Structure formats: structure tokens, C-alpha cells
Amino acid sequence: MAKSKIWFTSDKIKPGFNSVLESIEFKAARLFDEAGFADIIDPGDRVAVKIHIGDWGNTGHLRPELVRSIVDKVKEAGGIPFVTDTVIMQYYTFSGRGNALQLMTTAYRHGHTPDAYGCPFIIADGFYGQDDLRVEIPNGILNKQAYIARAIADADVLISVAHYKGHPATAVGAAIKNMGIGCQSKRGKYLVHLAGWDEPYSKPEIHPERCPGKNGCEWWKMCEDSCTEGAIKVLDDGIQWDKDKCLWCWAHVALCFFDARKFAFTPAPGFNQRMELAMADAAYATMITKDKLKKGKVAFINYAIDITPWCDCFVNDRPAIPNFGVFASKDPVAIDKACIDMTTQAPPYPGGLAEDLGLKAGEEKWEKIHGFSPLYQIYGLEKLGGGNADYELITVEPKVTVDEMMKYAPTKVPQTLWLREMFKANHFVREVLPTVKRTPSKELSDAVVEKYRSSLKKA
Amino acid sequence: MSYGKSTIYFLPFLGKKDLSVLTRELLKEVDLPKLLLAEGYVPIKVQIDFVDRPSFIEIAREIARECAHARAVPYLTDTTSTILLQDRKASMFEWTELALKKGISASYDIPLLPLDGPCGSDGLFVPIIGKELAATYVSNALLHSSNLIVLTCVTCDPLTGLEGGMKSLGFGCVTLEGKKKLHEVIKPAILRNLCTKCGKCDVCSQNAIMWSFGYPAIITEMCVGCMKCFFECEEGAINVMQRQIKRYNMRLVDTCLGVKKMFKGKILYVNLIAKITPHSAKFPNKPIIPDLGILASTDPVAIDKASLDLINNEWGIRGTAAEICNVLEPGKNKIEAITGFDPNYTFKLAESLGLGSTTYELIEVKSR
Fold first, then answer.
1. Chain A contact set for B93 (CB, 8 A)
2. Alpha carbon distance A405, A413 (integer Å)
């Protein structure tokens, strides 16, 4: 099998070379050209640009302009783009993305508006996330079916614009997660999170001795209410939990972890690996809707910047590793593998979680941070035929030419020409100059400057 | 079944005042905060479709602001399937473009959302005890909404006579499946004695129009009754039988009952009587009567009846459909003469099924 090609541009610029073309958003747009994404878009195609809007309070999500440059490229190629996201499975009591109304409010707060994108911003799976398409995947590893959000399933082309970062449930969140969770409807997301719900050992584990009960925890009412099945009952000094009723929706675990901070529930060993495999199934199902995979109408862009150990579904942490740049590929497996490999090679970010844990360049970072390997999703999707983990990295340097500049400059007319026209009518610099009073430059000798400096020191 | 009189607030357009100021005065009379449940979702149903009507976004914004003051959560909304019914290829993309064109967009803290998902299929199966229908598919978003505010620009309509609050509720709040259930009884036919073979009607999204012996003909089995061809015909050669229109209206009332079932709180209907165009290619596209004002009520039947009576009791404008149909004088049923269907039939039916009351008390709001 031939190696998959990945195009990569570093986010670093040469010292002093602060051209507009060195901006990371235009670097991504250039990768769009280099990777040949324009070829997969036929004129009139509806192109779903899948993003992650970032949950309430998150500030590390992809800024709208990083996606806007891709949207402009899609328009240039003749496609009809729309930016889209789906509502979440309610795993957290204070999430801002439970239904379309909350999601829209959060999205607008974060700047994801039609005005910012120049194209509609659409919730892909209806008001409560029930508008979906059931896709059968007989060769699925864990799940034999998936529920894909309707607008994404109906789109002709899928372009995933993902933010590469760590994730507590699947070790990394990038292109595969953007499809395997991001493109699923609400019940599709449950299906992935319930990977192995019929296996008793994959349910969360309870540590009743850690729960102080009603008397010691002010969150107890929310804890009881977080369970849709009524499996949790908080006693005066303890907790009762009906394990058979539990549907493993994360809600009580998230509340106990993040807010109550009692750690009475923990994931069972082996759960995360199973979830990664289920996510690979769902990602594969997303790609086969409308024959996108067969026709090659999928494209992936990973922004590896602000690489926090946690997902954009929570607030940001300090990055664990430094920024890499932008990746683009038509292969979701290869692009995520490349990001993970680069993470292994990278040094830890000063003061970040990776440095706190004493990790060094060349060590597997996500495995040490989250306790399990991120490679299950990679090899899962590869086995299904969604991609190839062998890749070759093609590094693209920004090309600073006039032609390139004309593509990305804010106006096609150089700004100085406008100024020239303005000066012809009203040369305000020459008009002002006769009335300006200044210290003659010969008086401002080195000795005078030294005098000011010494007086400042005294003060 | 007999009901008491329903109260309707009527704000006539008098003096030179901003529409939003007028709306505030109307809402003061209606006492909106009393109707709303705190912290509940309040969809404000506006109309986003190809029809040219005044977009009364000022009224929608003002109502949304009042809702937010009353600690409810308002958002502007409409179903995407209105567009989908006539154009199979259309999607939420066209919907958003159309909304932007009409000036209906999300602003500040009032988002704009589709009621029935991006592709018009986000629905909930709702059983009804009605005259024609046993069930319909109501938009899923209404499931946990406490209140609904239905804004309607009243126009003439070939299917309901008068397009008012009931059409907005029954037709506008259901998914594509629900809309198809309503429209499946409509089977227009082409009258050959009026047809000029111009071919303008050949716009069918279902390809149901076939040419036979030089004339276009509609294949009944393929037709979904979207009426797209009807609006294209300038000769009035495309005809829908009265019996079918009556069945359509029966189903509309049934659907209204289904949608109404979803809400704990009350539904407020706001009808704007301005720019009443005949809504048919037969007549010039000019308003048949002068602009009158805004109506508000919690009774869909009474508000539509009141709108009808106000329109009929007004002098018609010369040179419009009102003169062509010879119904200029007040008191003549202009709507029936122009559209060929008397909406009073629907109102009586709706009253008998308990949707509302046809007797009403009109309270004129004095603009201060």
C-alpha cells in the first residue's frame, strides 16, 4: 500500500519575516492548495466544514478566522460551504451545548457566526440532536451501526477542521474524533460512549468511601439529578448506586470529578480503549455516507496549536507541548498518526502538565498523561479501511510572491496607492509640517539623551 | 360546543410611530409576562419563505426583548421544510440565505434556529384525535418549549382562503412529513379551455407535469400538491377542487390540535394586516386594502376570524384584485371572491373541534 501523503507547515516564522503570508490561517489555505483539496470539490457541491465550537468558558477552540480561510478556499473551488457542529451528549451538568439553542448561544459568544464565516453556520443534527441517518457498518469492530448527523450525511463533501489536543476519554482529539464523535447525532454519541455497555466490567467503578454524602457535599442534589435512570441515591453519609441501571453517560463522573472533586466514580480499566475503537467505527460510518470515502470526498486539516492535555469540551489548561503548525491530508488515520508521532518527538511545554510529569522529548506523552495509548483509534480505523498509518510528511514553506500575496491580501489594490490618491487631494503631512514645533535634532545629542536617562534613574 | 368570547387586541396604524414602539404598547395590553413560564424556551415563529410579504422583524425583536425581560428564553425560528416542499434540492443553506435576505438574522442574544432540523426531518410523532388525520410529525424543538409566539403576515391564500395564525401553527410547525400529509390531498388539474400552452407551469420539482396533445397535464400519482405550478399560471387555468381544499383545511385543523398539544403554556398569536396581496398570478400583485394594524390574541380561530372581518369591512383599493372581483364596498367577502374559498368554513370546523372560538371581542389599543 502506498504511503499517505501529509502536507505540513510549521507555525514558526523566520525571525523578522512577518509577511501576511506567514500567518497560520493563510498557511492552512496554502496547504489546501498543495494537498489538492480543490480537486475533490465539484462545482455546486455542498461542503460541510466540521468544526468544534468549544464549550462554554473554553478559550482554546479554533478561532473563526482559522476556519474562514478554508471556507474561502471552498468557495473558490466552486463548492457551497457551510460550517457546522453538532449538539453533545450531556455528560456535564454545566455544558453550553445541550441543544441547538444553547449551542448557538455558545457559538455566537465564541464568534462562530455567519458573518465571521461568510457562509451559514448550521447545527447539523436538529434541535435535540435526533435528526440523523442510521448507517450500517457490518465490518465494524465494536458497533455495527452509527447515527450520523443529517446535514453532514447529506453533504457531498466533508472537510474536517480539527484542533489537535489531548482528550481524557480517547487520549487525543483530532480528525478521527472530529468525525467519530463530532459528526454523530446525540444518540450516535451515546452509542460510542456506551462502547461495551453490555460488559459489566466496563462500567464506572464506585468508591463509596470517598463520597461524604449529603452532609459533606453541596453538589449531592445535582449528582442525583444527573442520572437519567435514577440509579444514584445520595444518603446522609454515603451513596447508593445501582450499577445495573447505569448507562455510562459520564454525567455523574464529570460532576464528581470537576465540581464536587470527591472522585467517588472512576472509569473502569479498559473502557477508554474500547471507546477509541467504537469511535473508529463511527468515524468510518461518517466517511461512507453518500459514498464520500469511495469518491475521495473527504479532507482533513489539523491545527496543532494550543495543544492542551484536555479537550475543548472543558476549559483550557496550559499547553502540554509546544505548537507544531498545520497538517492537511485526505487520510484521517495518517494525519492523526503524524500528529501523535510529532508529539512524541516534541519537548514538553514549560510549566505544562507534560513537564510536571517529567516527560522528555522522545517519550510517549499522551499515554503517560491519560494512562492509555491513543493508537487504538488509529489502528481501528486503519483496519476498517478508513486510511493508512504509513505516511510521508511533505513540509511546505510559505511562498512569498506577489501572486500569492494577491490571493490573501485584504484588498487587491496596494494600500499605498490609496494613500497616494489621498495625498494628491489633500497632502496632510506637508500641510502640517510648517506648523510643527520640535526640538532640533542636533540639540538632541547623545549627551542630552544620557542626561534624561540619569534623571529617570534617580526618580 | 360553545365557548365564551375570546379577547383580541387590535392596534390600528395611526399617526407616525415606529413599529417597535407600537408593538410595545400592544404587548403592554396583552400582558405578555403573565403568559410566559419563567426560564422556559419561547420559540418566536416567523415566516421565512419565497412569498413576498413585509418582514416584520421589528415586531419579532420587540417581542423577544419582552420575553427576555420576563426571564424566558426566546429565539427566532421557522421550519426549513416550507422551502423543501417546493424544491427537493433545497436545504438549510437556502433557508439561511433567504432569512438573511429578508433581514431575519440572529442578533445580540436572540438566535435564529430551524424548527425541524437542517433537512426538515427532525420531527416527533404526535397522535391526534381529529377529523381526517390520526397523527402528524411536529417539530422536535417544540417538545420542551413552554410557550410559542406565532407571528403571521396575513395574506390571501388559495388553499386556506386567508393565511393567518392557524396556517402558521398547523402548517408552519410541522416537519416535511407533516407538511406532505397536509398537501397530499391537493391534486390540481389543468383546465384546457383556459390554458394558453405558455409552458410557465413546467416548474414541477417532482416532474409530474407531462405534455400530451400539446397541452400540459399533471400526473396525479406523482403530484405532491405543493402548488408551485398554481402560482406560476397567469391564466387561472390550474384549478383545485373545492372538495380537496375542504379536506386540506380539515387536516390543517387536526394538525393545529396536534401542535397545540405540545405546550404547557399558552400560545400567543400576532397577526399583521398589512400588504394583503391576492397571492395569485391571475391578479396584479398589489395590496387589495390599505394597511390596518396588528392583532394579538391567544385564540387562533378568533384572531383569524377578526382579521377576516377587518379586511372585509374595509374599502378595497381601486385597480387591484378587489376591483376586478367587484368587491370594493365594505361588507363584501373580499377573500372569498379573490381566492375562491370562504375561510369561515375552517373557522366553524375549528370551533367544533375545540381549537378556539369564532365569537370575539375586539379591544382597540389606544396609541398614546
1. 46, 80, 82, 120, 122
2. 11
